[in-house]
Write a structure and sequence with these properties.
Structural class of chain B: alpha/beta
CATH architecture of the domain at 20-50 and 160-247 and 441-531 in chain B: 3-Layer(aba) Sandwich
Order of helices and strands of chain A: EHEEHEEHEEHHEHEE
Distance between the termini of chain A: 36 Å
Strand order of the largest sheet of chain A: 8-1-10-9
Number of helices of chain B: 25
Radius of gyration of chain B: 27 Å
Low-confidence stretches of chain B: 5-25, 32-81
Number of strands of chain A: 10
Number of strands of chain B: 27
Mean pLDDT of chain B: 90
Oligomer: heterodimer
Shape of chain A: globular
Distance between the termini of chain B: 25 Å
Helix content of chain B: 25-40%
CATH class of chain A: Alpha Beta
Largest interface: A-B, 68 and 71 residues
Strand content of chain B: 15-25%
Chain lengths: ~180, ~800
Amino acid sequence: MAAKKRYAMVIDTKLCIGCGDCVVACKMENEVPEGFCRDWIVESVTGVFPNLHMEYRSERCNHCSNPPCVHACPTGASFVDDESNITLVDPDMCTGCKACIAACPYDARYVRPEGYVSKCTFCIHRVREGLDPACVASCPTHCMHFGDLNDPESNVSKLLESRPFKVLAPEAGTEPNVYYLI
Amino acid sequence: MWGNSCQGLGVEALQSGSGNAFKWAGRDLIISRPECAPPFGIGEAFPECTIQPYLETDMSVNRREFIKIGALGLGSMSLAPKVFEWGPSAAKTFPVQPGDVVTRAPTYCEICFWKCAGWAYTKNGRPWKIIGHDEDLHSHGRLCTRGSSGLGLYNDPDRLQRPLIRVEKDGRQTFKEVSWDEALGFIAERLQALKETHGPESLAMFSHGNGAVHWKTLVKAFGANCIAAPSFAQCRGPRAAGFYLTYGETVGSPERTDIENSRCLVLIGSHIGENLHNGQVQEMSKALDRGTEVIVVDPRFSVAASKARHWLPIKPATDVALLLAWINVILEEDLYDRDYVARYTVGLDKLKEAVRENTPEWAYPITSIQPEVIRETARLMALHAPATLVHPGRHVTWYGDDTQRSRAIAILNALLGSWGRKGGFYLPQSAHVPAYPHPPFPKPAWSPCDFTRALYPWALSPVASHVRDMTLDPPDPEKQIKAWLVYGSNLIYSLPQPEKTIAAVQKLDLMIAVDILPSEITGWADVVLPECTYLERYDDIRTSPGRVPQIAVRTPAFEPAYDTKPSAWMVKKLAGMMGLDDYFPWADMEEYLDHRLQQVGSSLEEMHELGVKTLPSLGPNYFQPGEEVTFNTPSGKIELYSQQMADAGFDPIPRYTPHAEPPDGFYRLLQGRSPFHTFSRTTNSPIFTELMPENELWINPQVAADWGLKAGQYVKMQNQDGKTSQFPIRTRITERIRPDCVYMVHGFGHSDPRLKRGFGRGADDNEMCTTVKIDPLMGGTGRRSNFVTFITEGV
């Protein structure tokens, strides 16, 4: 059996322009219903004119190594795929109780019109075929990187080794797997 | 900004009772469409909706590649308890299931003019997604936000569905749905009458987009040649004229900018990243990653400015002063490329003399940019030259002296030696694909364009706004424009002073609109022809210039929805009715394309497989060291000093002219682009409107404090001429803009209720631009000399 993966996304905020292509690519690929999104853009501006700094972040489920959504789920619908470390929801087991939504510090989940919870899957259907998630594959700035952190030779491992980075809400103790190069 | 707690991404219809605001004597704007209610409402989610059953596609005809998704994973996955399995449950989570039939068809995008090549996918016979083509030089396999959302146009429930003819009913004008035979027969008959009464020259065409090709042929076969596109005099025309006057060539589209190899990139009001010109965005990102020095001149902290090491928040309308100061520093400090300037240019001494007084200290009080910043940035440009690119911009119709500003940019690049050099402007190559042969066109006895050229000597293309003005007020009573054919260009939003456009339409005998959506201009037409989207048709071969020649094809990925048709079908049928068959000797687009492709060693069959094909390079992309080059200018050199401009009575070297300043309590109105929209043509799309449902008015916090404005509150704008915006606009209080100007994204505030999502969402910048500064060199319409104040009461 192949070694277990720890898939992660590394996003370079120095290059992200907040164009939202990742949002649309995801919506199209995953047929996300109107009014919902699995990823989104945050624009953060600091300073006073003309001394300003701006950062764009493409945000989504952090596929945490310590996922509060999974711990909170009463039915076992939310789970971590053992092979890939990707957090998923089994629609047939989900009752739509929203405990996971309350537990997620990243606001990454939503209830689909059909009544079950949905969110970013890191495009596991593409990853299994050796492709990047749709958002990564579409980004015109090439600011998004996807790979296996258990592999020290992967592009994501190397980027985290060579560049300063941050994660979102580290104080939540979730051990997120989406990293932002700063 | 968008997390899932803001699930109000959906569109809320704005209440407004102004449905009949556009009443006009004579010709009414038709906004009701009683006979054709949309098949489903706004509230319904689009993946579930059925628009119109698209027909089963005959794969043997379209030769699309079948991609059979096999029993993916079923056998190969280990069945550890916590590993997810494909199965009925997964069907609800994953978009592709074992047994799904996925097909793809090559296309190139029509959501903007960049025309990126991609693949349109269907899943089980239904449209799924569009992704970029890996071999495409415009997109490198990655479509932009708008290209990725192309299905939004296809899925737009407000699309035109059937041909419409204006009729009188119970004393009111309305549109009647008619058959194609009736609509085209009506046009053929009216054009024949036009020919007899006013001559064929009285037909003018406005166009935007690749689908217009056959319409243009029809217009020329009919005996007219006035074919104007707002993309010239309302957009990039000054740049074309400025560079043509300097280098004898234009920068083209996609621009020949070698950003990928630039070591210093200078952007002047060009907000790459917000304008999502795909190839440039990708190249800028590569350049940033390499640590390229980026200098951004913009009154707004644009996205590009946020990535740049040097942001020069210039006072708006003073760019020429900054450019002259940069030229001054480069000349005074002897930083220019001496060999290049000596070898290739003419007029250095006169230039030196002309800019002697334009020191950074002179420019400081004008531009508000400190002298040391001007010097430092000029030295940086020289340090990295010739791999320094002072970008020519694209939408450059600002203040009426825009050709001169473009000239200054062109001259600065010449001093840095960047034209024809790596990291500057490369030498582009285009595929030459011979035309499908047809008889020579009749020679028109006169052309409205003759009047334009007499007025604006460097109008390199017809001036759409001038064609409109000549329709309204003919320069010669014997030579009147009496019919318009408007293809894919919403003139109400793309031409300045929309009331003039509406008044001009009143003078027409015939107004034909070909469009996909019921854009505002269609409401003024006598006959409306509903075209299918770019995803449902063949179009002509893409041969745009690049570093190597490349061709790309657009093929139908889906059957046309409703009763819409491709332009090629409409034109061929109409030509038959008008006795102009000879100009369209092909049976259909498949034969037309195959014939053309055969001449470059390809075929339609091959291009269905390939999508894009790169042809052999025609030569180097840069001048060779010491190469002798003859430029297409009167002197054969790059003209720092332009004798032909002097001869025509214009400044031979650009000069700074002060522009009008905002009155007290008013702010200069600046317009720009968003990565989520193209002009006014996407602001009704179900997908685009989710991303950005309305535009906002950017206001500096100091100004907001003066006016007591709150973030996100709706205000109306009123301009210096007392014009009030039809719809309110939300405020965006932000440090990202100077206090002497406000900014909004163009294309919003649709006034036609047939556009259900776009109607009344945000405001239209165009209606606020009652003052238009005409560029005397090429007829461009500068719109940035308009100033607005805020109306907060009764909004």
